[in-house]
Amino acid sequence: METLEEAEFCFPQLFNTSCKRHTRPQSESMLIYILMSFISLFTVVLNLLVIISISHFRQLHTPTNFVLLSLAVSDFLVGLFVIPSQILLTEPCWFLGDLLCVLYYCLNFIIVYASVINMVLISVDRYVAICDPLHYSTKITQMRVRICVLLCWTYSFIYSFMFIFDSLKQPGRYNSCYGECVINISGAADIVLGFILPISTIVVLYLRVFVVAVSQARAMRSHITAVKMQSSVTVTVKKSELKAARTLGVVVAVFLMCYCPYYCVSLSSSDLIIGSSSEAFMSFLVYSNSCLNPLIYAFFYRWFRISVKLIVTLEILQPQSCDTNMFLLYF
């Protein structure tokens, strides 16, 4: 009986001050471990392929792809650091100390916020490409995109440290027992600045993109003669831009489906208990988004499938492989 009681505590030697473990069926625990481990490995490998593809092949060095590269980096870090750390919290006993607990949350916030801001940048990029195609090349340049990506990560760092600064000064001050990993953040500010504001921006921009894309698609299918168009020249968006808008629209839609449930629970003032089955499911949903993005690229972007083939077959190790014409390989 004593062994069973000790097994209920994170630190049996600190019987009076130790946190209790959540009792969960072994089959459920194994399922969580297997799913999280699989997603972690899959996320790292797939996003690493995206990073190598866009970084290596010069023809893929476009403003849109630089934003996708930034998104792939944040997704890669989710698979490499955040998901493995989340597995440690399924007990939920934190054995790595109070300082690493705060740093874990800080890294988590940085990566998640960077993903959100990258989605905003994607929406802005598609908005300009579809709604103002004549000025796209002058407004969305590689230098401006690189600056925006840098500002995205800088904002994520500052934003995250702003929320964990109080906990960083005295790690563990909000823990009620040993083995707990808790920090204090302003929930309202987090929801407004980290979710409502950027998500509203994404939705509004993509609704505008959707309306314009539909009208342009109808215009391309119509049988308007060149004579009728002489009086008022209409600029139609290229098919490639419409396809990119559709593809990135799927990325944004999947992102919203993965992230919205977690924040909807926060908005409903319902608390998620760390280590509970509901918290594990919400985390699984959020982190699975990092794994789904490369799969969307593989499904919609032929250049990604071709680049993966070149990487897997080690053809990228050949001299001048970075100058490969990816688009000629389409045919």
TrEMBL record:
<keyword id="KW-0807">Transducer</keyword>
<keyword id="KW-1133">Transmembrane helix</keyword>
<keyword id="KW-0297">G-protein coupled receptor</keyword>
<comment type="similarity">
    <text>Belongs to the G-protein coupled receptor 1 family.</text>
</comment>
<protein>
    <recommendedName>
        <fullName>G-protein coupled receptors family 1 profile domain-containing protein</fullName>
    </recommendedName>
</protein>
<feature type="transmembrane region" description="Helical">
    <location>
        <begin position="191"/>
        <end position="214"/>
    </location>
</feature>
<keyword id="KW-0472">Membrane</keyword>
<feature type="transmembrane region" description="Helical">
    <location>
        <begin position="30"/>
        <end position="54"/>
    </location>
</feature>
<feature type="domain" description="G-protein coupled receptors family 1 profile">
    <location>
        <begin position="46"/>
        <end position="297"/>
    </location>
</feature>
<dbReference type="GO" id="GO:0001594">
    <property type="term" value="F:trace-amine receptor activity"/>
</dbReference>
<dbReference type="GO" id="GO:0005886">
    <property type="term" value="C:plasma membrane"/>
</dbReference>
<feature type="transmembrane region" description="Helical">
    <location>
        <begin position="248"/>
        <end position="268"/>
    </location>
</feature>
<keyword id="KW-1003">Cell membrane</keyword>
<keyword id="KW-0812">Transmembrane</keyword>
<dbReference type="Pfam" id="PF00001">
    <property type="entry name" value="7tm_1"/>
</dbReference>
<dbReference type="InterPro" id="IPR017452">
    <property type="entry name" value="GPCR_Rhodpsn_7TM"/>
</dbReference>
<feature type="transmembrane region" description="Helical">
    <location>
        <begin position="145"/>
        <end position="165"/>
    </location>
</feature>
<feature type="transmembrane region" description="Helical">
    <location>
        <begin position="102"/>
        <end position="124"/>
    </location>
</feature>
<feature type="transmembrane region" description="Helical">
    <location>
        <begin position="280"/>
        <end position="300"/>
    </location>
</feature>
<feature type="transmembrane region" description="Helical">
    <location>
        <begin position="66"/>
        <end position="90"/>
    </location>
</feature>
<dbReference type="InterPro" id="IPR000276">
    <property type="entry name" value="GPCR_Rhodpsn"/>
</dbReference>
<dbReference type="InterPro" id="IPR050569">
    <property type="entry name" value="TAAR"/>
</dbReference>
<keyword id="KW-0675">Receptor</keyword>
